[in-house]
Amino acid sequence: MDNWFLFMQLSVHLWVTGEESLSFSSFLVIREMASKLHSRWYDTCLVKTYKAFVAHSKFFKPTKMKHLKFLQDTIIELYSIDIQKSYQQVLASLQQLAKSLQLAIRTMMKEDLKRVRNWQYINCISLWVKFICCNFKEHDIESLLSLCILVLKGMAYLFPGPRYVPLRFRCMQMLNQLSLSSGVFIPVASLFFDCLEYKGKEIVTDSTHGWAIAVSNLANNTCTSLTYLALIFVRLVPKNLVKSQSFQKECVLSAIELLSAHFLQWSHHISFPELATFPLILLRRFHDKLTDNTLHRQVKRFVDQILDRCWRISACNIVEQNREFIEKKRDGVSFSPNDQVAIDSFIQKYLNGRICASDDKAQ
């Protein structure tokens, strides 16, 4: 038994620290032990791999992004072998994340806030977001979804300053992912409009890396040049970039792209016109205040697209209501389809505005 335990520890260590091929081979060993041996070993595998992942994700480097993604994907595969057994492990982890967040919100102490705004915390919540997205449709894990949503929204509202826009955007992305995979509506529009108010920091969208943020090369605390890194690589915006002149433009573009993804998920829903009403009001107000011509055109185009979709859905609803109304009235007539006089009278009465569906209901 001790030999098996030592073998597992070694496999986990090589999985989390080894190079690509060694890490993959080590995971195959862990997965085999978890699926073939006694159920107690499965629980042990879950605990050991998660603790190793947490320790490894404490420090984040762009060069390690591929390996971090591999670790997340393999943990999700391991935890998905038996959802009934892994559920409690995931729930306990999310509850611990929620407690840390709750403590930070309650005390607002520097040390408590640091426990939330670090890569370890971000990578852990990102891991469970992916786990929920992969398993929600086939398993009853709604409680995990609800807790995850609360943690993400709490993170976004806890750090409202412009230096934390990358963190807030990351939370919005994960909320959009949860909404898309679960089919549960998550009201996140307010988070986007909060970001539109920030000025002085440059955020850009890079075609290769997605969300991106300009990060300066500092020499003697002076910004000498700008390089573009994916937003996922940035946790806190450097102070010397907070007042960048192009902040408003790029922040607006990034926020609109995220808001577009949110609306896209619900653009075919019958309640989309109501969903878009308040954001449209805020977008129009924001549009009227813009002085940049490029932003002015892009925001207007975005507003027009939302209005067009709302009109299409409303038009479809009207068509459907009229179809049901006419069918109901037609079922009550006694004349033949060949009776042209009666048909003309029917058309005059119900289709030319004398009586419409709404009027008929009022009567």
- How would a textbook summarize the main sheet? 3 strands, antiparallel
- What strand line-up does the widest sheet have? 1-2-3
* Rg (CA only): 27 Å
**CA-based shape:** flat
Approximate strand percentage: 5-15%
By DSSP, the count of extended strands is: 3
Organism: Apostasia shenzhenica
Subcellular location: Nucleus
Protein name: Nucleolar complex protein 2 like
Main location: nucleus
List the main descriptive attributes of the protein structure presented here.
363 residues; mainly alpha; three-stranded antiparallel sheet; 15 helices; flat; disordered C terminus
Question: What would a concise description of this structure say?
Answer:
This protein is 69% helix and 6% strand. With 363 residues, the protein is mainly α.
Characterize the structure shown.
There is one protein chain. This protein has helices spanning 2-17, 20-36, 39-56, 65-79, 83-107, 110-114, 119-135, 142-158, 165-182, 189-196, 247-266, 272-289, 293-331, 340-350, 357-362, and strands spanning 203-206, 210-219, 222-230. The protein is mainly α and 363 residues long. The chain is flat. The protein contains 15 helices and 3 strands. Residues 199-231 and 353-363 have low confidence and may be disordered. Strands 1-2-3 form a 3-stranded antiparallel β-sheet. It has a domain at 162-198 and 215-321. InterPro entries: Noc2 (IPR005343). It is found in: Nucleus. Keywords: Nucleus.
